[in-house]
Amino acid sequence: MIEIQDITFQYQKKPLFKDLEMTLKPGNLYGLLGKNGAGKTTLLKLCCGLLYPQAGRLSVFGRTPHLRQPAFLSDLFLVPEEFLLPPVSGALYRQMLAPLYPAFSAERFEAHLREFELELPGRLDRLSHGQKKKFLLAFGLATGARFLLLDEPTNGLDIPAKGQFRKILASELDDSRIILVSTHQVRDLEHLIDPIVILDSGKILFSQTLEDFSAHYSILHGELPDGAVVLYEEQVLGKSLSLVESEVPGALPLDLEFLFKAVTTHPDRFTTAAPVDAAGSTRKEVAHA
Amino acid sequence: MRKPEISLNRLARLLWMDARFWARPLAIGGTALGLLVLVFSFIAAFSRSGDTFHSGAYAWIMGLGGLIFTSRAFLELRHPLSTQNYLLIPASFEEKFIARYLLTSVGYLGVSYLGYLLLQLLSEGINQLVLGRSNPLFFVNNLDHLQVMAVYLAFQSLFFAGAVYYRKYSLIKTWLSVMALFFVLTVFGYLVFRLFLHGYFDGMQANENVMMTFARMGITGDLTIAYYPFKIWLTWVGRIWFWGVMPVCALAFAYFRLRETEV
Amino acid sequence: MQFSDPRSIYLQLADAICDLILRGTYASAEKIPSVRELAGEAGVNPNTILRTVSHLTDQGILYNQRGVGTFVSENARETIMQQRKKTFLDEELTSFFKKIELLGIDFTDLAPLWSQWKAVRQEVRHENQ
Question: What architecture is domain A2-208?
């Protein structure tokens, strides 16, 4: 479990987070959505202990990130949007770092590399950006770390690789793990990321599972039933696409881009964090059924 | 708030990782310098002027090479992306710090010493074969090289701290900082002298009043002897500062600086 | 925007699994892959697969043996066929009739088309064999 309580953080004089709160539960693949500059990467860095919060409490599986204890670091893997790989071969990289992750699985690492159709003949720093990314994703997901942070993971991946990545990521989630994926390419990860956390100008505007969302809101195309409370509306080919409160039969399936636009346009019209707790329990019921 | 955590297993892994990383650049640098040594040692033997060639060459190559190496010890910290990788390696600060320190101090000394031993044997072997005479080897019958190593260790700690503190051009910046530090200390010493002890000296000599005072205290004759205990005391202060306080402060500074690094 | 299939993704996945059962990929009383494997194959959130599996379990198409895994029920094929027939008669046929009425097509005109379609189909099958 990851608990973020009243975090305050600012770069030099530019305040970013004030009293930020968020709870992430194991067994979930969170999608962190936000525009550029919303603070997604900063939030990930705070969770890794790469940045220290100026106030508030941060706990990742009971450990404080900024102490950077070995047990914390070996239970976490960050795949940054931009990164450097050392001038060594893939085999040597693995030989060097894998033993520092006690739960590393060589088998899964090989399987991921196969899925990505990635061959590693030479030095890692000479690979193309997309190949580097595949390598780091394959390694990171095989570390067995319970907390995975992926910052814009599909950036730089070609079209087949995006599909391969979805498969790998979906197969890596288990009950003990928390996967936090920050992205603004929602198309690439639709049906994969859930719950959704929307971060905008340093605030969490929205944080719920899509199941809960569908139970409270509906997307309708064309005419609306009487008394519908419209939260957000958009014109598509002359017909209006609306987000209305309460569950309505015949509603369209949730579209993340539409949801994102609705929430960032009218943040005050949506409840934020409360339903996530409820979501955890509905999920349990489903699991037991 | 947190206890230091040191696992020998992880420490050994980090050392191995760093050694793997540095093996190539060090080998390349060492080979280049080695070739220079062969050439100059040959010239020295040819011109019969190489009596102190190897002890000098060893001190300079080991010392300067080591300081350059030490300033590059935290190469990762020069770029935020590599800093990020380094900070996230699953090991404690203590382990990361000790690994780098061991590598640049004891590890480097051992490697460079052995390397130079072999190099001078090779070099003098060649000289003997070609010229029929050789330069004296530096490690025979003297322990000067131990002193050179010790001086290296003391100075190295400053450059180690510089490597953590300055992200770019740490060698030059550390060198300038050390010079600046010594300059400030000299100015400070001079000012103290001017302000408080000015009245007691006449040039470099103690003036008459002081002589009289000492005479009244029963100290007469050669004042260098009279000042002797003070001189010993001062020497000890200097030694403790140079061998103890300075390296310990530098290393402590480096450690805390590393701990506070953010990306 | 992509709203091609208006149903929830978990229901679409349930359909896909039913198709596999009908095609015999998953035989009755056979264990189906784990949630994790299915999620990996489909590239969707494992929690969605969990929902799909529990939906199919509720309908008696799958059953869960604690600690062993999820299995295909003995009469899964019949259940699926029955369900699909019901959906067809209840929903699709209605919209079909509506369309016929709207376009002014006489129902008796459809009989020859139906025989023609079946003949073509027969031919294709022969060729494939």
Answer: 3-Layer(aba) Sandwich (3.40)
